[in-house]
Amino acid sequence: MPEFDLFALLAGASPWWWVALAVIVGVIELLTFSYFLIWVALAALATGVTLWFAPGLGGAAQLALFAALAVVLTVAGRAWLARRRVVDGAPGLNRRSEQMVGRVGKTMAAFERGEGVLLIDGVRWSARLRTGAAGPGETLRVIGAEGMVLICEPA
After folding, report:
1. Higher pLDDT residue, 1 or 126?
2. How many helices (H) and strands (E) does the chain have?
3. Is the separation of the CB atoms in 60 and 48 below 8 Å?
4. Are strands 149-154 and 123-129 parallel, antiparallel or unpaired?
5. Are 102 and 117 in contact (CB under 8 A)?
6. Which residues on adjacent β-strands are paired with residue 128?
7. C-alpha–C-alpha distance, residues 139 and 94, integer Å
């Protein structure tokens, strides 16, 4: 059975093999949106460019360079992305119940055990009174939200 020597294979490899690896890993990154593989792809690309300028680089040196670049680029890239993270300008965008805080609505029926239905702009919401009781047609103000249940108090 023939032996497989990765270092010997890499010692005679073209820089284009590293570029091809960079493209393949980059495509996988585009398909998965992991924001992790992009740094590995850049490390493979940098290894290919280095091999272009230093064609005598051995297989062990290529792998060591690739591994070191992958670690350094991943750590530096994640730190860079963390600093550039955009603060959410619309914090309740996908949480409709939180957008109702401060709004006023009318009860559909009497609240039983502090729970009932509140009508705001023609939309029915499950609601819970923080304190007190509410009869049909009373006006309540939304003071909070727990999931899709509005927390209310008399307006």
Report:
1. 126
2. 5, 5
3. no
4. parallel
5. no
6. 115, 151
7. 26
CA distance 38 to 46: 12
DSSP for 67-131, please give it: HHHHHHHHHHHHHHHHHTPPP-SSTTTT-HHHHTTT-EEEESSPPBTTEEEEEETTEEEEEEESS
Q: What residues does each domain of the chain span?
A: 6-83, 96-154
Model confidence pLDDT, tens digit, residues 4-33? 777 777 787 889 999 999 999 999 999 998
Q: Which CATH architecture describes the domain 96-154?
A: Beta Barrel (2.40)
The predicted-structure confidence for 97-113, as pLDDT tens digits, reads as follows: 888 889 999 998 888 88
Residue-wise burial string across 102-120, b where 16 or more C-beta atoms lie within 10 A, e elsewhere? eeebebeeebeeeebebeb
Q: Looking at residue 1, what is its pLDDT?
A: 61
pLDDT, tens only, 56-78: 898 899 999 999 999 999 999 99
Given a contact cutoff of 8 angstroms between Cβ atoms, the answer to whether 99 and 125 are in contact is no
pTM, rounded to two decimals? 0.55
Helix or strand run (H / E) with residue 62: helix 59-83
